[in-house]
Amino acid sequence: MVRAIIHVDMDAFYASVEIRERPELRGCPVVVGGTPEGRGVVAAASYEARRFGIHSAMPAAAARRLCPQAVFLPPRHDFYAEVSRSLHGIFRRYTPQVEPLALDEAFLDVTGSLRLFGSAAAMGRRIKEEIRSELKLVASVGVGPNKFIAKLASDARKPDGFVVVEPDGVQPFLDPQAITRLWGVGQVTARVFERLGIRTIGQFRQYSPHLLRQHLGNATDHLWALAHGRDERPVIPDQEAKSVSNETTFARDISDTAALRAWLRELAEQVARRLRKQGLRGRTIQLKVRFADFTTLTRSQSLAAPTDTTAEITRVAEQLFMTRLPTPRPPVRLIGVGVGGFDEQNANQFTLFDSGGAARARAVDSVVDAIKDRFGVAALRRGKGPPGYK
Questions:
Q1: Inter-residue contact 247 to 336 (CB < 8 Å)
Q2: Model confidence at 369, in pLDDT bands (50, 70, 90)?
């Protein structure tokens, strides 16, 4: 059976939420993250700011040089999470099969909802309109027979895009696209294609798999399947997830270790707060890194006792980052932190062997959470957090 998949990607989410709350900023270049003095890093930028070359993960000082008149705002992740919950409420009107990728992005498998709501295209259109009317935000929506096609469709006409790719239209949609649109084509693979004179997916399909395998090795089968529009990955609903994680994809590859560690600390903080809000503790800390060539590595470490403390999750994530990655480390495109191995029955109980340090860490977390819940996420930042970011 052909599946019906919708990919929803909010346009400049953090910045758009801030502009919605402050209409006087509409039309202005808005940067979320960093400070007007140039400290910290950019978390998000409005499309007006992007026209000046500003993008996420770049130093705020560079953003200020590119656009001196930009409005810099501190990020409010708890508020964005609240808006995201409303967004996912709209998704679940149409299907329980919702796989969140981030606060502002999700896959929906609506195959089982076709008899109730009609075509996937009709559902995608309704979701887009309900986001606009109820949340006063703009989304780009892609509809296709699998995750890969739906994701490419949502990217095709951003911002405010809506693209439907029917099963019999997959190849005409794919063939003109740049070969770099295939998931897994990074800088190294792109140079191989350049030497072969392959610039589009259609040109790639004209080569024999045998010849391609001589140049691409084990990656050939994966890329060949995507080039023919095949992607069997299922949509995995959030409630079936075995871990709590946060990740971020950078607009530009990052090599700077200090910047990457700052993002690690930020992601660890977000994951720890989500665990505490859900009453969960986990024994396994996970690090995910995707390099510029799309090679993706995951590293993990198991603990003697489950944890939900920011300090412990941060410590292990940084240790994995500093000691378990290739040397020299290639530029990084995506970085993520997760916690799994939940001990749900005893999630909110202290263990018999809790150390004084663990108890103090939980006390600090409790105070930090209370302050942020009351005054906002920007009200307090930890001593080793990204300078100027929170």
A1: yes
A2: low
Question: How are beta strands 105-109 and 5-10 bridged, if at all?
Answer: antiparallel
Average pLDDT score over the chain: 86
Residue type, position 178, single letter: A
Which residues are CB-contacts of 325 (< 8 A; sequence separation ≥ 6)?
A: 289, 297, 299
Residues 6 or more apart whose Cβ sits within 8 Å of residue 256: none
Q: Are 70 and 52 in contact (CB under 8 A)?
A: yes
- Using a 10 angstrom Cβ sphere, with 0-12 exposed, 13-18 middle and 19 or more buried, the burial of residue 358 is middle
Q: How much is the pTM?
A: 0.73
Annotated catalytic residue, options 99, 105, 247, 312: 105
Closest Cα partner for 59 from 332, 248, 258?
258
Q: How many CB atoms lie within 10 A of CB 118?
A: 11
Rg of the chain over all Cα atoms, to the nearest angstrom: 22
Q: Is 105 a catalytic residue?
A: yes
Mind giving me the DSSP string for 66-101? H-TTPEEE---HHHHHHHHHHHHHHHTTT-S-EEEE
